[in-house]
Amino acid sequence: MNPADEILDIVDENDEVVGQAPRGEATARGLRHRCVFIEARDPEGRLFVHRRTATKLVFPSHHDMFVGGVVGAGESYDEAALREAEEELGVSGLPRPTPLFTFLYESPPHSWWSSVYEVRCPVPVAPQVEEVAWHAFLTDAEVEDRLGSWSWVPDGLEAYHRLREFRAAGGAGGGA
Questions:
Q1: 3-state secondary structure at position 108
Q2: Is the peptide bond before 124 cis (omega within 30 degrees of 0)?
């Protein structure tokens, strides 16, 4: 199936479903929908970082420190988090990602409710070539060093900063 044809739940400012639309239409019209962001770390605590392919519908060729994507119509955030993590990392049998927090991402022309998760991932990984053009597991310091020089997906960058604040305030999980 063409990703633009995937049916999404359209939600309001309270994350309540108000309709459905194909992903391509939701993107083109700026309809609010749901997404998941999963921080994947290897057994040593390094963070999975990748560059999206040039064919991605949103933010092509940008770097991201999360795997994830849209939540399909009728799918829960938890179901989407596990599905997206396994698909994008190219692994099966991952533990269920741990939910951390949600936030509303809004930046013209995009708007989506975002649920942030964390998961430990065995290596090696085999990311989808349709999704991932390059990948590596980087230390937190290596990621920080690249924040100002690489082109990052803006929603992932916002989720990254919110996750750092969440952890600084005593939220669960953490890096190495």
A1: coil
A2: yes
165: Cβ–Cβ under 8 A, 6 or more apart, which residues?
Answer: none
CA pair distance 120, 153, nearest whole angstrom: 22
Alpha-carbon distance of 61 to 131, in angstroms, equals 10
Provide the residue type at 67 as one letter.
V
> Are 109 and 30 contacting, i.e. CB atoms less than 8 angstroms apart?
yes
Kindly report, residue by residue over 47-96, the tens digit of the pLDDT: 999 999 999 878 899 999 999 999 999 999 999 999 999 999 999 999 99
Give the dihedral of Cα atoms 17, 39, 151, 148; nearest 10 deg: 120
How far is residue 134's CA from residue 63's CA, in Å, rounded to a whole number? 9
User: What is the distance, to the nearest Å, from the Cα of residue 135 to the centroid of all Cα atoms in its chain?
Assistant: 15
**Rounded to an integer, what distance in angstroms lies between the CA atom of residue 66 and that of residue 58?**
14
